[in-house]
């Protein structure tokens, strides 16, 4: 009971308490190799491999054990690739493969004789040949980052569907229905660990510029960017109050999901968003003005002759809080009215009870002008 009471006390001020093991969990690796994770024993890796390749490549050739390459082939096919599988081991002659598609050698060389065979295959196929270790090792950086930093999704199995784009952080599919993201230039605030960035990339964003002030969040997103070859993603360390059109130019969409209530100067931040784009996606906690509230937590902010009743929120010190000591929750109607008063059409995407102690409700909308 004491542990629960202590944890609850930390949660009230925005801190998360969790236990971490003293030693990292050992990864199952291939025989005689201590660093390449065995994808056949941990399917999360298997399902991520196609993300190392551009969908534009369309076709892939797999060399290796029949049962294993069929499993990996199914994974590629689910991602829209055409797949040719060729059963092959180290005792066979180099296979005949048509010109064009890239070839994954689904065998891990472990001695000099096998590495000599790899050299001959590279002489035959050139840069088209890629070793299994080349496509799998980048994912171990995610595992290592999860062991080093606090993640919202704490295991590879939990975060893999988000990085694949099978699941989204928030209703990105509904946003995409309102404003198709394919080819769009987007500025994203607070990528945290790249989960929302992955969704934007998956939905075809032309470019994503991420603004992040927390070093650990930038590192986590950088790990994802490198692991998944997000060539169209740019990471910038900056305070989001400094991000306006004068500094970063214009974008097709300003994306601020789960960050507005971290702002120490919310009206300034909202004006920045509108300077960056005529399309602003905003999502965040709001307070429910129909509920009894402690009056000592409220303030009145005035902006351009209008008064806004806001709830003062201490930030605490955790991996996903704001960089200042406090921020504000608006009521849902007031948050929308700010953008309506600037000539925006506000399309509410979702609004519901938050279901957690951080805020009463969670509102998401697209403001366009």
Structure description:
The protein has 369 residues and is α/β, with parallel strands linked by helices. It has 2 domains: 43-137, Rossmann fold (3-Layer(aba) Sandwich); 149-368, Vaccinia Virus protein VP39 (Rossmann fold, 3-Layer(aba) Sandwich). The chain contains 12 helices and 14 strands. Strands 5, 6, 7, 8, 9, 10, 11, 12, 13 and 14 form a 10-stranded mixed sheet that branches. The protein has a 4-stranded parallel sheet with strand order 2-1-3-4. Helix 5 (132-148) packs antiparallel against helix 9 (215-227) and helix 6 (156-164) packs parallel to helix 8. The model is unreliable at 1-24 (pLDDT under 50).
Provide a quick synopsis of the model.
Helices cover about 35% and strands about 25% of the residues.
């Amino acid at each position: 009971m004491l542990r629960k009471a202590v944890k609850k006390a930390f949660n009230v001020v925005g801190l998360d308490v969790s236990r971490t093991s003293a030693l990292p969990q050992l990864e199952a690796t291939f025989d005689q190799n201590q660093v390449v994770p065995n994808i056949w024993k941990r399917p999360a890796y298997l399902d991520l491999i196609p993300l190392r390749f551009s969908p534009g490549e369309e076709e892939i050739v797999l060399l290796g054990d029949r049962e294993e390459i069929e499993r990996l082939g199914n994974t590629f096919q689910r991602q829209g690739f055409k797949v040719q599988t060729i059963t092959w081991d180290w005792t066979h002659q180099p296979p005949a493969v048509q010109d064009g598609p890239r070839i994954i050698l689904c065998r891990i060389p472990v001695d000099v004789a096998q590495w000599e065979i790899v050299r001959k295959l590279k002489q035959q196929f050139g840069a088209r040949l890629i070793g299994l270790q080349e496509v799998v090792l980048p994912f171990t950086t995610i595992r290592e980052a999860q062991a080093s930093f606090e993640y919202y999704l704490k295991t590879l199995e939990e975060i893999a569907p988000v990085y694949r784009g099978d699941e989204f952080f928030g209703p990105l599919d509904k946003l995409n229905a309102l404003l198709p993201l394919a080819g769009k230039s987007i500025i994203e605030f607070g990528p945290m660990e790249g989960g929302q960035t992955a969704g934007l990339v998956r939905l075809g964003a032309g470019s994503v510029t991420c603004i992040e002030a927390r070093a650990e969040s930038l590192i986590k997103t950088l790990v994802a960017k490198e692991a998944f070859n997000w060539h169209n993603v740019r990471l910038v360390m900056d305070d989001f109050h400094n991000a306006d059109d004068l500094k970063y130019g214009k974008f097709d969409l300003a994306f601020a999901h789960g960050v507005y209530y971290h702002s120490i100067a919310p009206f300034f931040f909202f004006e920045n968003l509108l300077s960056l784009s005529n399309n602003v996606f905003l999502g965040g906690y709001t307070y429910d003005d129909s509920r009894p509230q402690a009056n000592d937590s409220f303030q009145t902010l005035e902006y351009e002759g209008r008064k806004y009743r806001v709830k003062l929120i201490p930030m605490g010190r955790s991996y996903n809080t704001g960089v200042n000591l406090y921020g504000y929750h608006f009521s849902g109607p007031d948050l929308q009215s700010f953008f309506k008063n600037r000539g925006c059409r506000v399309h509410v995407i979702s609004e519901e009870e938050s279901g957690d102690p951080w805020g009463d409700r969670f509102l998401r909308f697209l403001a366009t002008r």
